[in-house]
Structure formats: structure tokens, C-alpha cells
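pinging the channel bc i need a second pair of eyes. not urgent but kinda urgent?? the chain im working w is below, pasted from the shared doc
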Amino acid sequence: MESKDPMLELLSSLEQIVFKDLSQTVTPSQKTNPFTEFERLRKGTGLKIDDFAREMGVSVALVHEWESKRVKPSTTELKLMRMIQVARTVSTQ
């Protein structure tokens, strides 16, 4: 029996809930470059780099790597960024 990572299952479930309407409208041709999506999400949070890193649970150095396009954010990291952006948007409303 295959063991699944509970954190990945939680992230997947949260993403399905948060983005259920959006996921129906996105087509494969609309998929963005991970670096472009990172830049959009990073700016969308309005957080300083150290606060953003803390929210993501990563080092400031890794955020700098993403910003300089030396390291590509993973799909899971991009999902977490989307959730952080949505949570910040909802909390300010």
C-alpha cells in the first residue's frame, strides 16, 4: 500500500477548495512559466522578503534564488504561494 504525505494531501485539498472555480477555466495553453507565476504571486502578497520566506517556511536565500531565476519553485511551493496570497486577500476584506 502506498503511503501518501499528509502535508501534500492537505495542500491538495486546500487548493481544490480555494481554486475550485478557477481550475475549471484554466486550459493547458494558459499555464504560466513558474518564474512568471512566482513574481506575480510574490508581489501579490505585499510581503517583505523575510516575511514572505517565513510564511513559506523557507529561507530568505531560497526566495532570492527564485527571484534571480537560478532555482525554479516547485509545483507544491507555487500552490502554497497561491494559498498565502488568497489568505492575505481574504483577511484584508
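so The chain has a mean pLDDT of 81. and Residues 24 and 90 are 21 Å apart (CA to CA). — does that match what u expected or am i reading it wrong
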